[in-house]
Design brief:
Elements (H helix, E strand, L loop, with lengths): L17 E9 L2 E4 L2 E3 L1 H9 L6 E3 L23 E10 L6 E8 H11 L4
Antiparallel strand pairs: 1-2, 1-3, 1-5, 4-6, 5-6
The chain binds zinc ion (2 copies).
């Protein structure tokens, strides 16, 4: 049994834990969270994220193409308002990092989905 209950389905579970570290950066301030979860919940939660996420390569080599000037990741016409980062650590795997640059409306969707405070 994992030492802590999964913070998504709220009970203890068999097997090693996975973790997610979502963060939303707005105007130089950030809202972060650490979720200790089971692997199925982590995978479902990442899949259900309401905005398309781009995976960042380990060495950050594809980071440049994300920076600035391309608007909201959801394809909205609204100006970019916040940057969302997600580090996901699945059982036995290297951490994966995801990124999306979003408008204000989409940042609210992300905050709600991941339980972040804006
Ligand atoms: Zn769970
Ligand atoms: Zn948007």
């Amino acid at each position: 049994m994992a030492l802590f209950p999964c913070e998504i389905h709220l009970s203890r579970y068999q097997g090693p834990s996975s973790a997610a570290y979502p963060a939303l950066l707005v105007n130089g301030t950030s809202s972060r969270k650490h979720l200790r979860v089971c692997e199925p919940c982590l995978i479902a939660k990442v899949d259900e994220t309401p905005v398309p996420l781009q995976q960042i390569m380990d060495d950050g080599s594809n980071m440049e193409q994300f920076s600035g000037g391309q608007g909201c990741a959801s394809g909205c016409k609204d100006p970019t308002f916040a940057a969302f980062f997600l580090a996901a650590y699945k059982r036995g795997a290297e951490g994966e990092t995801y990124y999306a640059s979003v408008c204000e409306r989409c940042s609210l969707l992300l905050a709600e989905h991941w339980g972040l405070e804006l």
